[in-house]
Design brief:
Elements (H helix, E strand, L loop, with lengths): L1 E7 L7 H13 L3 E7 L4 H10 L5 E6 L1 H11 L6 E5 L5 H6 L5 H10 L1 E10 L2 E3 L2 E5 H14 L4 H14 L4 E7 L2 E7 L1 E6 L20 E6 L4 H12 L5 H4 E6 L1 E6 L3 E6 L2 E6 L2 E14 L4
Parallel strand pairs: 1-2, 1-3, 3-4
Antiparallel strand pairs: 5-6, 5-16, 7-10, 7-14, 8-9, 8-13, 10-11, 11-12, 13-16, 14-15
Helix pairs in contact: 1-5, 2-3, 6-7
C-alpha cells in the first residue's frame, strides 16, 4: 500500500515528533508512507495535490477537525479514501466515525481497515465535516483566537472567551428557508450539523450516524442572558428539552437570510466572515474514509 500522509504542524499535537512516530508505525504495518509536515497555510494546496496524485492508494491527514475539513474538501467526490490520524484537541469527527484516538489504532484502521462512504456538508461552498454555527459560538471563537495569539493555551482561552461571550449576549434576526419550511427566528445561536447531533447547549453531543444524508438545524430559543444561562445549567444535568429549548429542523439544504450583508460563521471550530444569505447543503456519501474492519 502506497499512501501520502500530511501532518498539519498547527493541528493540535501534530509536528515533527508525531511524524517520526507515524513513520515507525506505518513501516511496522508494511505501508509505504510518504510523510510531509506542513504549515497550516500550505495544507489546502498539499491536500489538493495529493487528491490528484497518481500511484497513491489513499491520503491520510494528521491533525484536528479543521485539518480534516480541509482534506475532505479536496478528496470529496474523487473516490480516493481518506485516512484519519486524530491529533487535534477534541477530534469529534474521528470519534463519531469510530476511528481509534490513539495513533497505533488509527494507523491500523488505515492499514487493515475498510473503506466507508460518509456525508460532508458545506456553507457557501466551504466544506465542514462536523458543524457550522452563527451567533455566540463564532464570536467565542474570535475571542479565543485573539487570546491564543496572546500566548494563552487553547483550553484556557476558550474558557475565558466563553465567559466574555455570555456577558456580551446578543440575538440574531434570521430567516430560515428550506424545503417545506420558511420561518423567521430570533436566536443567540444557530447550529447546523452534518447529520443529527444529540442536543447539548454548550458542548457538542455525539452523532449516531454520519451517513444519513441530512442536516440538523438547531436554533436556541433563549431570548436573554438569564434564560441562556438557565438552559446551560439544565444542559449540564442532561435536562434540556428539544421542543422547549430549540427550534429544530432536519433538511437536506437550507438558506439562512439576514439583514446583515455578512455574518460571522464557524465551521468545525474555525471562524470566518461570509456573505448572506448563507446557503447550506449536505453532500451524501461524498467522502470515503478508512475505518476499523469490525465497524
Amino acid at each position: 500500500m502506497n499512501i501520502r500522509v500530511i501532518v498539519n504542524r498547527g493541528g493540535g499535537s501534530a509536528g515533527e515528533e508525531a511524524a517520526d512516530r507515524l513513520r515507525a508505525l506505518f513501516a511496522a504495518a508494511s505501508v509505504t508512507a510518504d510523510i510531509a509536515v506542513v504549515a497550516p497555510d500550505e495544507l489546502a494546496d498539499l491536500c489538493a495535490e495529493a487528491a490528484k496524485a497518481t500511484g497513491l492508494d489513499l491520503v491520510a491527514v494528521a491533525g484536528g477537525d479543521g485539518t480534516l475539513g480541509t482534506a475532505a474538501a479536496a478528496l470529496a467526490g474523487t473516490g480516493r479514501p481518506l485516512g484519519i490520524l486524530p491529533l487535534g484537541t477534541l477530534n469529534h469527527f474521528a470519534r463519531d466515525a469510530g476511528i481509534p484516538t490513539d495513533l497505533e489504532g488509527a494507523v491500523d484502521a488505515i492499514a487493515n481497515g475498510v473503506p466507508r462512504r460518509v456525508d460532508i456538508a458545506e456553507v457557501n461552498g466551504k466544506v465542514f465535516v462536523n458543524n457550522s454555527s452563527v451567533g455566540l459560538y463564532p464570536h467565542m471563537v474570535r475571542l479565543r483566537e485573539a487570546q491564543q495569539a496572546g500566548g494563552r493555551s487553547k483550553r484556557l482561552a476558550m474558557l475565558s472567551a466563553s465567559l466574555a461571550t455570555l456577558r456580551s449576549f446578543r440575538k440574531h434576526r434570521l430567516r430560515i428557508r428550506a424545503p417545506g419550511l420558511e420561518a423567521p427566528i430570533e436566536t443567540p445561536l444557530l447550529f447546523v450539523g452534518n447529520n443529527r447531533y444529540q442536543v447539548n447547549l454548550f458542548g457538542l453531543g455525539q452523532r449516531e450516524a454520519i451517513d444519513q444524508g441530512e442536516l440538523c438545524l438547531y436554533a436556541v430559543r433563549a431570548h436573554n442572558r438569564g434564560r441562556l444561562l438557565w438552559a446551560g445549567l439544565r444542559g449540564i444535568f442532561g435536562r434540556l428539552d428539544q421542543q422547549r429549548d430549540f427550534v429544530t429542523a432536519y433538511v437536506t439544504e437550507a438558506e439562512i437570510a439576514s439583514d446583515r450583508a455578512r455574518l460571522g460563521v464557524a465551521t468545525d471550530g474555525e471562524q470566518q466572515w461570509m456573505e448572506t444569505p448563507l446557503v447550506y447543503r449536505v453532500r451524501p456519501g461524498a467522502l470515503t474514509i478508512m475505518v476499523p474492519a469490525e465497524r
